[in-house]
Amino acid sequence: MLKGDLILITFPFTDLSGSKLRPVVILAHTKLDITVCFITTQIQWREPTDILLNPNSNNSLKKNITYPHEQNSYAK
């Protein structure tokens, strides 16, 4: 796995009541853990700190994607 790769990972709900398999982008990858940020096409709930990516000729996106400000680190 490399920085920038997209993978599926079990991501916890904010209140820790459960989790859901979500697409994430790898932000950092070390020998001990991996830091990821979930991505979504549900842009109607965007926060001011989220990063919006639009489809263009330089990427293979089919929809607008947002990177929310929420991140998680996981032990390997």
Provide the fold topology.
Layout lengths: L5 E7 L6 E11 L3 E6 L12 E3 L11 E3 L3 E5 L1
Antiparallel strand pairs: 1-2, 2-3, 3-6, 4-5
Written description of the protein model:
The structure is a single chain. The protein has no helices and 6 strands. The chain is mainly beta. The protein has one domain (6-75). It has a 4-stranded antiparallel sheet, with no helix packed on it. Strand 1 (6-12) and strand 2 (19-29) form a beta hairpin. The model has no long low-confidence stretch (mean pLDDT 79).
User: What's the overall average pLDDT, rounded?
Assistant: 79
The number of E-state strands comes to: 6
Estimate the global geometry from the Cα principal axes. Answer: globular
What is the helix tally?
0
Structural class: mainly beta
Q: Determine the strand fraction and express it as a percent band.
A: over 45%
Distance between the termini: 12 Å
What is the helix content? under 10%
